[in-house]
Amino acid sequence: MKQKKEYDMALLRKALTGLTLRVAVSGYIVYLGWKIVANVGIGDSPIPSWGAWLIFAVFAAVAVVFCVFAWKQYLLIRKLAEIPSAPQDTDVPKNQDSGNTED
Length: 103
Fold this sequence. Notes:
By secondary structure, the protein is mainly α. The protein has helices at residues 9-41, 49-80, and strands spanning 6-7, 82-83. Strands 1-2 form a two-stranded antiparallel sheet.
């Protein structure tokens, strides 16, 4: 029977908070890129159209990379938050002699 893993809840909450904030920052980066493109569309920007789309593409790529980084950090901290459980081996006695004797 497989036991459910136990976690240090404080560390797990810290990991989840970090993931949430990093994803929010990634969303904001995409929003900023989109606002640059939108301002070019209505004529309020000195940036040429191709430049605005290039900036948006770079911002979007950075946001994706940051989300991947955030997910990897979350998984790493979650793994560190695991509480090791005692082994459930009851078949083998603890003081079993392996046959080696020292004289």
